[in-house]
Amino acid sequence: xxxxxxxxxxxxxxxxxxxxxxxxxxxxxxxxxxxxxxxxxxxxxxxxxxxxxxxxxxxxxxxxxxxxxxxxxxxxxxxxxxxxxxxxxxxxxxxxxxxxxxxxxxxxxxxxxxxxxxxxxxxxxxxxxxxxxxxxxxxxxxxxxxxxxxxxxxxxxxxxxxxxxxxxxxxxxxxxxxxxxxxxxxxxxxxxxxxxxxxxxxxxxxxxxxxxxxxxxxxxxxxxxxxxxxxxxxxxxxxxxxxxxxxxxxxxxxxxxxxxxxxxxxxxxxxxxxxxxxxxxxxxxxxxxxxxxxxxxxxxxxxxxxxxxxxxxxxxxxxxxxxxxxxxxxxxxxxxxxxxxxxxxxxxxxxxxxxxxxxxxxxxxxxxxxxxxxxxxxxxxxxxxxxxxxxxxxxxxxxxxxxxxxxxxxxxxxxxxxxxxxxxxxxxxxxxxxxxxxxxxxxxxxxxxxxxxxxxxxxxxxxxxxxxxxxxxxxxxxxxxxxxxxxxxxxxxxxxxxxxxxxxxxxxxxxxxxxxxxxxxxxxxxxxxxxxxxxxxxxxxxxxxxxxxxxxxxxxxxxxxxxxxxxxxxxxxxxxxxxxxxxxxxxxxxxxxxxxxxxxxxxxxxxxxxxxxxxxxxxxxxxxxxxxxxxxxxxxxxxxxxxxxxxxxxxxxxxxxxxxxxxxxxxxxxxxxxxxxxxxxxxxxxxxxxxxx
Amino acid sequence: xxxxxxxxxxxxxxxxxxxxxxxxxxxxxxxxxxxxxxxxxxxxxxxxxxxxxxxxxxxxxxxxxxxxxxxxxxxxxxxxxxxxxxxxxxxxxxxxxxxxxxxxxxxxxxxxxxxxxxxxxxxxxxxxxx
Lengths: 693, 130
Prior knowledge:
The complex is a heterodimer. By secondary structure, chain A is an alpha+beta fold.
């Protein structure tokens, strides 16, 4: 048969390659020669052998793949690997909304109870209305005929109750399957009754931390099953309390539609509480929610969870453990930094900025829960975790596109659409996270590539801040744009939208509407510095420096060296209201030899002023307040001082401040996020021009 | 046959023993080719893994009504499978004649093997078995 030197390839998985390898192997012998003829008996045998080889090789390859977290493809294998790393993949999670519920008609001091899982229906959002429920039982007392349940947290989902009876012989592992794959596991409530007729029960809580358990801990363990459902199991009397025979387990949970219901608003309670008529005031539209954790995410998070070992020490530990919270909140981006990096430094604190999925900020209750239940128990004792909201800087894009109509049959509107999609895609992939960088030139390149008919394009951007002004108390606001701002030229200065209403300071009963904030066009300032352009010679005493210009009050002093040259000029008082200035240097009294010294002046340019104006009855622009704040052009900070409008002419009450950056490269760090506002119809403005020939 | 020796050698599909050595016995030269031709005729499309086009449709044709057209079709089928998969054989003559009494076809195949000038002839009776 085969000679000692014939080698057979064993790496192939393809039928033909395996067969070719066998044929090559047979070529080294001459007993059987017909291996190459399809009809031969040898060929038939080779086929069978090849088929068998391929079958085994494929099977082994599959098994080997599924054996490792990195290469596994089946969700059940990945979940199983994650289990070894003590990682429970996150379930689908429901969006959360907030409402006040008011009941009317009860006698004073009567207590009214809003039962758990009372059903609220949202008004149709995206053509679909959703059912939300409150997850806790709440009480309120009637006062003046009304009882108000404040800040009721609603979660989307269908309440489901599952009841299991435990028998140690029928179910020795004390585990119970929750059959719905869309169970939001953060809403699980597990009650254990000692026997089916008992009315007393214990509430069991989930745990993954085995170090603190004993035989009396009322805990259950949660895991995902191979069929994507969930299983809860109970302790064995050593790690967690053991169930007694005949106990009844009642599990309450919500079956969620994930993030589909995000944005749902205007909730209505479907039935009255008691016999009282109720009304619901929506405080916060539904936010957040997300699908079941993806395979890619499990592969990414599970090893990190294992390396963090349930202790938040390093930056990555915090990020991993926050992402894995069991509160049902998912995050698009998490950034963590030590307080020593702040200016001024704050020692002993760690700052955490979070951008929740599908929303902009966390609610106060979510923040408290995150700190108390997720971060505090695992962080180093002396380190104080502080949650900060992300500081959003919105970019408004103004794009001019020139295209060649001979190269395309698309209309200008279609080109506009393509460009708009390109900008949106660019914003999605590069912005909207911490530590991101926006580069204008990258985007222009993308736009040029968007369609072959686009000849060229130019892009200008404005940076915006959006906030809800306090309408009752005048407040001071600081906005950090994180990029140097341009001084006002025509139509490019700082502006705000929409119009504001202020109380007339002269007649407090009267309101003035249509007020806007603008940058004072030419901001006159003082002297920033004086630089010596000719040191002169022969000065025996420091010469006298006089500043001439249209402002007043600026003074400066000169310094000379031993050779009689002027070395520097120091501004003592920068003065005010200079728009231009000259320096005159004259020899001091008693100095007969000093001459020829010369210097130039740099005017202050770092700060600008903001004012408010409106158009009066005769449509004449009237200044309402000459100074409502300052602009620090160099550091990109806008400050509104004692800003107290009484109304913002916008249904949301949101005010937008826009400014033009000097740089088109905008980076975000710490808690800053640069983003495109998907809800703002003016966020992208595109002008498409056809080239005429 | 005498002037070509041991050019082709194949395993015997009956797996009979060579009486002296006890090894599996070989079929040589003409017999190897003939057994290969028989194999091809008896192989249906999709019989062999990953080689769906290997074989002939003769098996299916035996279940059709016996007509003169069918004789030609079977003949063409045999010609195709041999031309496609048996390069050692050059077909000289194929004779397919229906045997209506026994519901089958008498097939006589005459061919040359390699450069051998002496024709080889095989006769088979093909009938459906189920």
